[in-house]
Amino acid sequence: MSSSKENLDEEKEREAPTTSNDSENTRDESLEDTASKFSLAGLERYLAEKMSLFDTDKKSAQSSEDKILDDVSIDGIVDYLKKKDCKNIITMAGAGISTSAGIPDFRSLNTGLYYNLQKYNLPHPQSIFELDFFQKNPKPFFVLAKELCPGMFKPTVCHYFIRLLNEKGLLLRHYTQNVDSLERVAGIPEDKLVEAHGTFFTGHCLRCRAEYSLEWMKERIFKDEVPKCEKCNKGVVKPDIIFFGENLPEKFYDCVDKDFKQCDLLIILGSSLVVHPFAGLISMPPSKTPRLLINRKKVGQRTGIMAMIGLPGGLDFDRKDNTRDVFWSGDCDDGCQLLADKLGWGEELKKLVQEEHQKIEKNKL
Ligand SMILES: [Zn+2]
Asked: Where is this region: Disordered (predicted)?
């Protein structure tokens, strides 16, 4: 608490018990008097000061300077982006950005994929992504891998929007939870990409660590073989996607360290923000960096006691004085197209998607 507050307390002590203006000395007064002197707001303010939760005078004086977005909406984000000349945007994505490409959210239990795997007697669906189980029985994983193999799907509007952000010099980094490699297919350069849960693009022998390419693995996976290492002739080659209990790639930690302190806008796309440490990234940008969530559901919110005592952390859409966090409800493609439209790149994005999709179709033939 500030020194002026301490002075005030001293004054109160000196004046006691004669003054009637001090809240501590109103106990003997009639209720009516008390009510006239202390509005509910005043009482709240007094209690907050007494409990040292925050300095209310300072807070109200600063509130206009503290305002981050003039308008807590997608328009506010676009204004901010233009006015502040953002150059260090971080995008974070989950399965929601790939669903429109036809990729099932394969960690969720409600997809047909797991149904197809019943014949393999998995102890539970997640066993497919457990190293112990994989070492004993890699077959179910490769059945799934065949369905998810890169090259089978076309990146979405959202993926190309992120590529445009990069081409406009605005993207610091794209962090993805997805292992579908659609970011790479969309043309987001590898150095701008952190594949937090790994990638199918490379694979390693579990015994001798020899590295293999996607093409090499694909050839075998599509023949319904379990890829075996040609160097040691013993190990199974596992695509470099992160299994349960495995460490995240080093690049994740290296980039998080240097990126987030520079982040001037965070855009979170299609993630339920439940898988850690990825989900925790939302609390890493500086406290005045706006955060936009484009998702079907409101997620990642600060809850309970954390919110009550004003600790930083999760997203804070519903706080009365929120000028930082924006939630846009809907599909990632629609949200990104809307953002592009408002930034004046709408047609450019549509053209890019069309041209790139045509290229991919041609290569398939
Ligand atoms: Zn090997």
From this structure: 1-35
Boundary of a domain, candidates 66, 86, 112: 66
229 assigned ligand-binding residue:
yes
Ligand 1 mean position to 128 CA, how many Å? Answer: 21
- Is residue 159 part of the annotated active site? The answer reads no
Query: 43: domain range?
Result: 33-66
Which residue's entry shows tokens 């980039």? 255
Q: How far is the CA of 236 from the centre of ligand 1 (A)?
A: 7
- Tokens at 363, concatenated: 């290569």
3-class DSSP assignment, residue 142:
helix
How remote is the CA of residue 250 from the centroid of ligand 1, in Å?
22
Residue 10 lies in a domain: no
Instruction: Give 269's strand partners.
Output: 93, 294
Would you list the DSSP string of 193-223? EEETTEEEEEEEETTT--EEEHHHHHHHHTT
Question: Do 237 and 207 share a structural domain?
Answer: yes
pLDDT by position in tens, the chain (length 365): 334 444 434 333 333 333 334 443 333 444 444 444 445 445 555 444 544 444 444 444 445 567 899 999 999 999 999 998 899 999 999 989 998 888 876 555 555 566 667 777 788 877 888 999 999 999 989 988 887 777 778 999 999 999 999 999 999 999 999 988 899 999 999 999 999 999 888 999 999 999 999 999 999 999 999 999 999 999 999 999 999 888 999 999 999 999 999 999 999 999 989 888 899 999 999 999 999 999 999 999 877 666 666 556 789 898 889 999 999 999 999 999 999 999 999 999 999 999 999 998 888 76
**57 plus 78 within the same structural domain:** no
Contacts of 200 (CB under 8 A, 6+ apart): 145, 148, 149, 150, 179, 180, 181, 214, 217, 239, 240, 241
Q: Are residues 355 and 237 in the same domain?
A: yes
Task: Choose, from 197, 204, 276, 357, the residue flagged as catalytic.
Answer: 197
User: Is 3 a domain residue?
Assistant: no
- What is the CA(182)–ligand 1 centre distance, in A? 28
Q: Are residues 212 and 347 in the same domain?
A: yes
Residues 39 and 160 both lie in one domain: no
Question: Number of folded domains in the chain?
Answer: 2
